[in-house]
Design a protein that fits this description.
The protein is of the alpha/beta class and 247 residues long. The protein has a single domain, classed as NAD(P)-binding Rossmann-like Domain (Rossmann fold). It is 46% helix and 16% strand. The protein contains 8 helices and 7 strands, in the order βαβαβαβαβααβααβ. The protein has helices at residues 14-25, 38-50, 65-79, 103-128, 146-149, 155-175, 200-209, 218-229; strands spanning 5-8, 29-34, 54-59, 82-87, 137-142, 180-187, 240-243. Strands 3-2-1-4-5-6-7 form a 7-stranded parallel sheet, with helices on both faces. Helix 2 links the parallel strand 2 (29-34) and strand 3. The chain is globular, with a radius of gyration of 17 Å.
């Protein structure tokens, strides 16, 4: 069954890649976005095609409006009508004492995480809105449990992920009337190559801080994203679903 086209930003690895493969298996034609990691993105696309799915890899910097416009135009041409968006692209930057976070670093984190989600959502809504002839659809934004708990020496990242929660709620209120649901997923500590958990000392600390005693997996987050995209979540909008092991 064809579910329409789905754009997933930052989908060359980790949560984005896991979601892309899961979505393709569920019947979406998937746009696998990447900024710099072309080869891993193409590997994700090859895996989807090998399993009988449809996907394309598209380079775009989500914080650049012209780049976002070009990406969605490519999805239009090659994948058909859009029905979903997963705003997964993001940067965390290094842990930095609050007083040492430079304006440039703060701006970069906000640009990729918040402005990027905003620009992609605008492009998606222009296509999915029933008021504009679209089929309706769903947007899932990636926040973080850190938006609620805070993060040590991560004020820039926490501020960005908190903004995602607020943006999600504002969008959900406004877009319900045009057939677009908007929710967020807030992961906790997830075992990805971006979050190396090979240090035994760090793993021990993690077990003490997470009630379930382990890191989550990209697939576990992807399942939550897929639920919010699906018809099973048709009466859910403006919600933040935490995938954080009880943290």
């Amino acid at each position: 069954m064809t579910r329409g086209a789905l754009v997933i930003t930052g989908a060359s690895r980790g949560i984005g890649a896991a979601t892309a493969k899961m979505a393709a298996a569920a019947g979406y034609a998937v746009c696998v976005n990447y900024k710099d990691r072309k080869a891993p993105a193409e590997t994700v696309v090859a895996a989807i095609k090998a399993a009988g799915g449809k996907a394309i890899a598209v380079q775009a910097d989500v914080s650049d409006a012209a780049s976002v416009t070009a990406m969605f135009a490519a999805a239009d041409r090659e994948l058909g009508p859009l029905t979903g968006l997963v705003n997964n692209a993001g940067v965390a930057s290094a842990r930095t004492p609050f007083g040492d976070i430079s304006p440039a670093v703060f701006k970069d984190v906000m640009d990729v995480n918040v402005l990027g989600s905003f620009l992609c959502a605008q492009a998606a809504v222009a296509r999915m809105s029933t008021a504009r002839g679209g089929r309706g659809g769903a947007i899932v934004n990636l926040s973080s449990v850190a938006a609620r708990t805070g993060g040590f020496r991560l004020a820039h990242y926490v501020a960005a992920k908190g903004a995602i929660v607020s943006l999600t709620k504002a969008m959900a209120l406004e877009l319900a009337e045009v057939g677009v649901r908007v929710n967020a997923v807030a992961p906790g500590v997830i075992a990805t190559d971006q979050n190396d958990l090979s240090d035994p000392e760090r793993v021990a600390k993690l077990k003490a801080s997470v009630p379930l005693g382990r890191a989550g997996t990209p697939d576990e987050v992807a399942h939550a994203i897929m639920y919010l995209l699906s018809d099973a979540a048709s009466y859910i909008t403006g919600t933040v679903l935490e995938v954080a092991g009880g943290r």
